[in-house]
């Protein structure tokens, strides 16, 4: 079998950036809140400095000196948000994330200004027709029961609904942040990911779901694995296979990883004699014909799977 075979000490391989894996860092949700707060602050300051929006928010037009100060504070906040994104998520991921949070912040500010309580004055009341007065008196009790805002005068009622809409708009970033915080973590971004190098190609390998294996319709235990090679070397790889127990040859290397090159997946069937000292073998075939293999003990690759098989064998 051409090529080399690496075993043990797998977790110390990936430490490079020139050919190493490039993945979006999984930072704490507080960093997202920081970027959103900086973006909201920057857009709000720029809105105060503008002619039309500033008059709505301040009930007057900002002076030239005030506009200069607001611009001097607003633009640096947006640039600071960009700097935080690039520092925390690198240039490519950070820029995209920055534009995403700018969109959320700009939409929130625009909609908040559109429903600002002091934006417009209520239209003068028109004298209703006699038939309208009779209908209004007849349905007055129903209005009081159906809506609390019906008890308010027309002008205060408009302010009430604007406040309600403004509060709903203010909660949009909170809802977005909550959904982001509770989003499931990508398998290849979890701390339990296996780092390795097959020949010259660094990679990451991880279970799709931590926990016991899934039973197929015939009662066969199966498990899905994700594999990702470095961005620069992915095109040099022809195929990759995964198998429990050492393959006898490349023709019996196991399940082929399929899907996008950036996220290969393989549904592996687990033998009934899987134990802690069993080995999970990854076979990588390069386009140059070389073959490289990496192996892990099953209690390192998937402790939950070993525990499940141990419990199952104890019941038999």
Task: Characterise the protein shown here.
- Helix content is 45%, strand content 18%.
- The protein has 316 residues and is α+β, with helices and mostly antiparallel strands.
- It has two domains: 5-17 and 188-315, Immunoglobulin-like; 29-181, no CATH class.
- The chain has a five-stranded mixed beta sheet with strand order 1-10-9-6-7.
- α1 (29-49) packs across α3, α1 runs antiparallel to α6 (154-181) and α3 (64-114) crosses α6 (154-181).
- The chain starts with a strand and ends with a helix.
Number of helices: 8
- Give the strand order, joined by hyphens, for the main sheet: 1-10-9-6-7
Mean pLDDT: 76
Determine the strand fraction and express it as a percent band. Answer: 15-25%
Query: What's the overall geometry?
Result: elongated
How many extended strands?
Answer: 10
**Count of domain modules:** 2
Order of helices and strands: EHHHHHHEEEEEEEEEHH
Low-confidence parts lasting 5 or more residues at pLDDT below 50? 1-23, 143-147
State the end-to-end distance.
39 Å
Could you write a compact summary of the structure shown?
Helices cover 45% and strands 18% of the residues. The chain is built from eight helices and ten strands.
